[in-house]
Amino acid sequence: MAGSRYQYVKTFELPDPILPGTFMVLRIDGHAFHRLSEVHKFAKPNDERALQLMDHAARDVMNEYKDIVLAFGESDEYSFLFRKSTALYNRRQAKIVTTLTSLFTSSYVFNWSKYLPDTPLEYPPSFDGRIVVYPSQKEIRDYFSWRQADTHINNLYNTIFWALVQQGGETTTQAHATLRGTVSGTKNEMLHSRFGINYNTIPARYRKGSVLVQERVCASCAPSTQLPPASSDDLASIATETQGTPQQPEQAPSGSSRQKASKKAHALTKIELHHCDIIGDEFWDQRPYLLAE
Known about the structure:
By secondary structure, this protein is α+β, with helices and mostly antiparallel strands. The chain has one domain: Alpha-Beta Plaits (2-Layer Sandwich). It has eleven helices and six strands. It has a six-stranded antiparallel sheet with strand order 4-1-3-2-5-6, sandwiched between helices. Helix 5 packs parallel to helix 7. The radius of gyration is 22 Å and the shape is globular. The protein starts with 22 loop residues before the first strand and ends in an 8-residue tail after the last helix. Mean pLDDT is 88; it is low at 221-228 and 234-259. Its cofactor is Mg(2+).
């Protein structure tokens, strides 16, 4: 930047580096999406097209920023986990939040017509973003458990709520009153007895959310497997109880260090979409690299 007598104004800018050696999670949320879903007549309780559009926007972010190793999406939100050692934008919080939230938003708008071709976009949707810093693997595991448990709780409520409205003839006010104070077991029983719906047969996307993960694809890595689904009771129980790293400059490698570098170079990844349990240990045990340095 060219020097001038006005350059002193830069001294008013505050540095905002994120603490090194910690995990970063960026959560992006739709702003006023209740109105957006009403104006564009999203299907209730879940609109498959809108959820696929969210997945597309999240994948675009992960394709652009390789230090994101995991993302979890539900409804109008997505959470992104960065590699612990990431030095993206020198870990400047505002730069990361604004740039990635902007990319997510622009991808959402750009790809709208691919997923909702018969629904013109009536006005520009927007998203907000925030970064939360966590000290250890435990908090990261608990964070994503919290988000998936929240997915189950919200989806169970919305499923029975809209069944009462669409099939039971109740108004939205009456449906809210019917469900006030009910627990998950009561909601499940109501779904089955009144509407013949077995909650566990509802598509896993709606019950468990979307999991985008950088899967290892090198020959020496075990192939990814679809994980067995956790039951809605398991998720409800947990919810109740809890209510691009840049490569460092390498010294001249030799011997075993050369072999390690070669193996690392071949440890390629690809982004895979799952709708699986991430509360239990199996998902994480199969992918220890997600929480590594």
